[in-house]
Queue: 2 jobs
Job 1
Amino acid sequence: MIVSKNPYSGEVIEEFKEYTDTEIENALQKADECFKTWRKVSFAEKSNLLKNAAAELRKNKKEYAEAMTLEMGKPISQANAEIEKCAWVCEYYAENAEQHLSNETIETDAFKSYVSYEPIGIVLAVMPWNYPFWQVFRFAAPALMAGNIGILKHASNVMRCANNIQKVFERAGFPEACFQNLVIGSSKIENILKDKRVKAATLTGSKPAGSAVAATAGSEIKKTVLELGGSNALVVFEDANIKETVKTCVQARFQNAGQSCIAGKRLLLHKNIEEEFMEEFIKQVKALKVGDPMDKDTYIATLAREDLAEDLEEQIEDSVKKGAKIVLGGKRDKAFFEPTIITNVKKGMRVFDEETFGPAISVSTFAENDEAINLVNYSDFGLGVSIFTENLKFAEEIVSLFDDGAVFVNELVKSDPRLPFGGTKISGYGRELAAHGIQEFVNRKTVYFNIYE
């Protein structure tokens, strides 16, 4: 049985019977049959269905958001915002997919030559619990619009959300088996990915999970897109707008209780502004409302599981032993972890070197701009970096010096349907969203016409 448990109350919400091998086979067979017809459906018809999905998300937002909050503890106001973002990505691809996948004419010696973008078939999505709707929809909306079929292996602790996502597509009028949630554990992934009917996989999650999926897919010569962890830096230069930067940095680190791959986890401050910045930063973090995730005013509730809070506690304790200092928070109560600020953090400490998944931020200082850039690039991760400066010319000059997949200036790193999203180094490869994302799981077909005189 797969058990969904409320991390805030500790109560079991629901139990799900895991699919048998026969049920998995039936799901794959249905998906394969569905692809034969779905691939021929016009963009206009698919667009209407995806707009229906956006409408369904908004119509039953309360139902979907509450399931999210119950299963993984996301504050209800943030859960509502996540559902709205899912509706946005559906509308974006409903309106733009045809253009993104239109034939690209290329002048050659041929009478006519072009590149077409065609669906490949069934794509397996292995998705995490931290944004249980958004992570899935940013895959599903482009994949379905491209003419592919989606099958989902979701995190076991958000299986009600997973079933609700399938329900969204069913209620929107998509053909049966166009998108299916498979109620399975991780042990079933390898055989599914090896199945000849499954053509590719996308995974958002940890490095070990990504490595395992990539290894299996590689052995079968199948395409993968991996969006893995991150240890994003928030770099505050000497000329930054302190008041606005503090506000952005608080949001960047502490929304969703810090459980985000793109959260700002390492705060790098120019030493000349450290005192002024930290005074305001501590003040704003202290003001964050802690409490029941179902309370609309709650900003920090609980982590999704108790073991996640234990992992964070160990990272902090180990760093303190090496000289880091806790200036705020630091205490754990089961799955709850206090909003925490750790200063005097250096390279070699776990809170600097590793990804910290929770409401804790490490603070380091730098004296020279080159030092800040080197501290950012020191990380094995490369998902994104935020830099704060009033000198936009300076910002333009240093953007190319960062190894990350994204650089945000005077803003937190975030995903936007209109922009490609993905990382470098152990943060993964491939891109989601925008035209780049929808073109990941297609056959870029070269078409060449000649005529005989």
Note: The chain has two domains: 2-228+427-449, 232-416.
Job 2
Amino acid sequence: MTPQDFENRLKAQVDFPSPSRVATEIIALARDPDIEMSRVATAISRDPAITAKILRIANSAFYSQRRPSQNLRQALVIIGLNAALTLALSFSLISAVRALRPAGIDYPRFWRRALLAATAARTFADAIKAPHAEDIFLAALLQDIGVLAIDRASRDFYSQLPQSSVHADWITYETSNLGKDHAAYTAVLLQSWKLPDRIWQAVAASHKPQTLSGDTDDGRFARCLALGSDLAEAVLSTDRSGVLPPLAQRVMALVGLGNEAFTEVVSRVMSLIPETEALYETSILDADDAENLLAEARELLAVRNLHALQEVSSLQATTSVLLTRTEEAEDSSRRDPLTGALNRAWLDRLLDREFTQAVVFGRDLSIAHVDIDRLKNINDKYGTELGDEVLKNCTIKLQSCVRGSDLVARFSGEEFLVVLPGTDRNIVKQAAQRMLNAVADMRVTSPDGPVGVTVSIGLATYTTRQRFPSTLALLEAADHALYAAKLCGRNRFEAYEDLAATNRGASSNR
């Protein structure tokens, strides 16, 4: 039988489960770029078991929320639309596939391996910041489904393999007898189920991920699948002696993670196993095995680090110099050359990140728009050299008034923006007053003697009760407050929410 003949036979199997009605609807929703959250919630809610699991995962260690989600809509907001669709699809598909009991395969081990591979693949994706982490989880969970399908299409196909056979043995046996391995047949099934192209294409390449460039999203996707599978195989190996060092080398070769990052991945996978076991209602690994594996990973890291220290001791001084230069270059690219504050480009990137986290996790986020009063007059009277001195001293004063986790950036000519994550309205007002006082105490020397400097500040705070649709809207609110501070005489701060409340009060008195 040719590989194509077997592929046709595989597709024709009537007793191999295809996606359920709910899963089919979820796949259709996932392909709609304009899908609304309410339609997703409606589709998922038709399956109470999936709904319960989505709620559970939103409140699990995967997302580490401070406040638990109370209903499905809250859970969908927390984990995101794509993650919800992918997770719901995985629960629906796997619930059907688990009903199979193939011959010649250690099914409990097969199922534990699938869950471990999925958890590990997603963790590798997080470590290298690969996109589509939830899709990677689903693809890794299903990447060996072709084994079950082959067993359905050719009864007792795997019965000649010893129970102790490992993943590499499956691949060799399949290729020898069928012309292709199970990754290729899994990809055929996933494509026929109309899963997104990136899922089945990554599965098809998962046994030879080097065939896809590591600089592309598809290449990183396939590499995460391959490494998730490798780590699962290592964890479930009956003889783990010596399995981690070559895996660590493969991780470095495929995705560039060193021993420390690899050890963190192993630790993260072990910590997520209880959550995964609860979500998929099965047992993966007992606590002793998990602890032993962690100990081996830590030992690997210690031995490798010691070896590395011995090898590079003679080059340590040179390495230190190069590292310092690299860090200085990276830091320089993020900073305004005159003041040393963060530059506008880096500010935009970090502010977008902080705003997204505030929205997703329900945190407060405050910004202070600071403008130096009458700097143009100083420039016109004393020259830009003194004006530049004012800008540099102002930066130092602003930085002295905020926490190390806050951001001070030069927004434009004489304007600065201070970003204060996790800061509510009262705290940011206290910080603004410190800034006013610090700058007012500042003096720069001119030919006519000391020159006093003041600033005006506009404040805006994102909270769960005062939401803004975008970072631009938040910036516009702070700019509006700054304009009000200027109109009120300068050397003061105004808060957007106070202005809004005043306007509402004035309107109600008309």
Note: The CA atoms of residues 230 and 396 lie 51 Å apart.
